[in-house]
Write a structure and sequence with these properties.
Strand content of chain A: under 5%
Largest interface: A-B, 29 and 30 residues
Structural class of chain A: mainly alpha
Distance between the termini of chain A: 52 Å
Oligomer: heterodimer
Order of helices and strands of chain B: EEEHEEEHHHHEHEHEEH
Largest sheet of chain B: 6 strands, mixed
Radius of gyration of chain A: 20 Å
Number of strands of chain B: 10
Number of helices of chain A: 12
Helix content of chain A: over 70%
Number of strands of chain A: 0
Order of helices and strands of chain A: HHHHHHHHHHHH
Strand order of the largest sheet of chain B: 6-7-8-3-9-10
Radius of gyration of chain B: 18 Å
């Protein structure tokens, strides 16, 4: 059953998937709690524009995607301050700009060899050794950064004004965090694809919020749920010859439904027990 | 006596219109100052100016003798915002996680919260009587309990001066009573300087040792507690239909 693990492409796919399965929920919990859940969609569409620009200019597409999404992330942060009560507008504006640019650039690049489907839906089985090194190095930096800025990011997510008053350099940390988001999205798009990267950021976190007893608990649970989705999803997609990105995301939605239904059943059983005990 | 806040000729406005004009105020260590005034009298605005959330058009503000532009010891100052109890109640944070993060000023950037820091958290929680609920999710507390946790969050950094903006909004009467008892304890036993904005003139005048009335872009300070001499000032700001009735519990 596990003989596929002897194949290099499968080993790289699992390694890359597991790193991304930590990164996405790790930043996802702060994104969801700051009501910026659609930022993944927005930046991934901008990353697509970056990929197309990279192909057109014969530059490393992942590198261009990273540059484009970081610039767009700064744009979101700047616009967020203009639309304080409607933070989602900033995300929607950048998404529109990114998608429009992507469509135009892809149109211009139609005569060049661009693996559009691979970027849109993920191509985890074509992760090269160089890609894995990039994911591992940048991924380690991101994990270390979040570990070191854990209490600062938590405070900003809960109460930005109080965080500023306590002395936290909110503006600088927000700018740094937005770079981390852009980097995570660019790294993740090879695994689940541009269309689905937002799902891996949001859904494991949404699942953990149903049962978490603390913030730390929510963070750990969301990483566990993401890991299960990625690892089991990769195996299932291989055996059943399904698209890996879609399989991973569907599995994460399945886990969410299981937890929601499970919690409801436990609650009803507890109520019944209490009533029969009276 | 140490002057903790000195405001001199302070003016502030949004766009062209001034909402505060030539405000002067001195707050000394150990003061328990209540700031009252009708809606629109810029009470919250004054607090925001004092915690550097807003920048004045004119005038000076000094905190602990230092001009606010150069003031760096923000750990000495606590602030409980008006919207403190109107936060995201589904945020998955426990009471101790919520209180612990305000240790930032003593722990510093990049460093984690360690077990030794938690002693300060439990100390702050026991001052407000919430130590037994430290593991509870903040959203599972009542309004009064949440308010106490927000005060504990402010206390954990051992401030010398606390600003509270409408702290009893949405809190039931019993919890309000407990809140004012707590404020009295902080002021009298821990010698904390307290500045509280409130609509509740009766409760404020019963508890504080100094009152300031705001309105018509001005501030008038009045130094006494529960008796009424400032009824004329109230009339000036609230209109002549306002009359303060004092009820003493025996």
């Amino acid at each position: 059953m596990f003989e596929i693990l002897q194949y290099g492409f499968m080993q790289r796919a699992l390694a890359a998937g597991m790193i991304v399965g930590v990164l996405c929920p790790l930043i996802g919990i702060f994104i969801v709690l700051r009501r910026m859940s659609l930022i993944g969609d927005s930046l991934s569409h901008v990353a697509l524009a970056g990929v197309a620009a990279g192909v057109l200019t014969n530059t490393y597409p992942m590198g261009m995607a990273l540059v484009f999404s970081i610039v767009a992330a700064f744009g979101i942060e700047k616009l967020r301050k203009k639309y304080l009560e409607y933070a989602e507008l900033a995300i929607a504006i950048i998404l529109s700009a990114g998608l429009g640019t992507a469509v135009v650039l892809i149109g211009l690049a139609k005569n060049t060899n661009i693996d559009l489907m691979g970027y849109l839906f993920g191509s985890i089985t074509t992760v090269l050794k160089e890609d894995l090194w990039l994911i591992a190095v940048l991924g380690s930096i991101i994990i270390l950064s979040v570990k070191m800025l854990y209490k600062e990011l938590f405070y900003i997510a809960f109460d930005e004004e109080a965080a500023r008053l306590s002395g936290i350099p909110v503006r600088t940390i927000n700018l740094f965090f937005i770079i981390i988001i852009a980097t995570t999205i660019t790294l993740s798009m090879r695994i689940v694809g541009i269309l689905l990267v937002s799902s891996l950021i949001v859904i494991p976190v949404a699942t953990s919020l149903h049962i978490a007893k603390s913030f730390r608990h929510a963070m750990v649970l969301s990483i566990i749920f993401a890991q299960i989705s990625v690892v089991v999803g990769i195996f299932i997609s291989y055996w059943l010859e399904l698209a890996p990105g879609g399989t991973i995301v569907l599995l994460s939605v399945f886990i969410l439904l299981l937890v929601v239904i499970g919690k409801s059943i436990v609650k009803n059983l507890t109520n019944l027990k209490m009533q029969s005990g009276k | 006596m140490e002057k903790v806040v000195a405001v001199s000729n302070l003016s502030f406005g949004y766009d062209q219109e001034l909402v505060l004009k030539d405000i002067n105020l001195e707050i000394f260590k150990g003061d328990y100052l209540g700031i009252v005034g009708p809606n629109g009298s810029a009470k919250s605005t004054l607090i925001k100016l004092l915690i550097k959330n807003l920048k004045p058009n004119n005038g000076t503000i000094k905190l602990f003798g230092e001009a606010i532009e150069n003031f760096k010891e923000w750990g000495k100052i606590g602030y409980v915002a008006q919207k403190a109890t109107a936060f995201n109640t589904s945020f998955p944070a426990t009471v101790e996680e919520m209180v612990g993060v305000n240790l930032f000023s003593s722990i510093g950037l990049f460093k984690p919260i360690k077990r030794k820091h938690m002693d300060k958290v439990y100390e702050a929680l026991s001052i407000v009587g919430m130590q037994d609920l430290s593991k509870r999710l903040i959203g599972n507390l009542s309004g009064g309990q949440q308010q106490k946790v927000f005060i504990a969050r402010t206390l954990v950094s051992s401030p010398e001066l606390i600003f509270l903006d409408e702290p009893t909004v949405g809190i039931d009467l019993k919890s309000q009573g407990e809140f004012y008892q707590l404020m009295k304890k902080l002021n009298q036993e821990l010698n904390m300087t307290i500045v509280m904005v409130s609509h509740d003139i009766g409760a404020v005048t019963e508890n504080v040792n100094k009152v300031a009335c705001m309105g018509n872009k001005t501030l008038i300070e009045h130094q006494q507690c529960c008796n009424i001499p400032f009824s004329e000032i109230l009339t000036q700001f609230y209109g002549d239909k306002m009359k303060l009735l004092v009820h003493h519990h025996h």
